[in-house]
Write a structure and sequence with these properties.
- By secondary structure, the chain is mainly α.
């Protein structure tokens, strides 16, 4: 797995204020899987990375880009103890927003 992906994953997770435990619960993996992924000892499957990207508010393709932080949706959490249900809700909302952004790009291309 690309070190840029690992670095971006960890940075985006931390920027959202999501602990490894909360991310593990959201992805339905062990906390040690997140820790080992971020340290380069283990990989995460594409499905989990795609799911994390929705939570981060970035397209999956951007996770491997050094400037992935320039394109993201940023939710604000008032609590530090965020439930897995809340993370799923944020992920679903981000999916809708990312779809709208992509549709706008497609419309601009077809009209331009």
């Amino acid at each position: 797995m690309n070190s840029v992906v690992r670095t971006n994953f960890k940075s985006l997770r931390r920027n959202l204020g999501i602990t490894q435990e909360a991310m593990a619960s959201f992805l339905q993996v062990e906390q040690s899987s997140i820790s080992k992924f971020e340290s380069g000892e283990r990989t995460l499957n594409v499905s989990n990375l795609e799911k994390a990207c929705l939570l981060f508010g970035i397209p999956y393709a951007n996770l491997s880009q050094k400037d992935c932080h320039n394109y993201k949706l940023t939710p604000s959490f008032r609590k530090t103890d965020i439930s897995s249900e809340s993370l799923h809700a944020v992920s679903e909302i981000n999916q809708i927003a990312l779809n709208i952004i992509e549709m706008k790009k497609l419309m601009e291309k077809s009209n331009g």
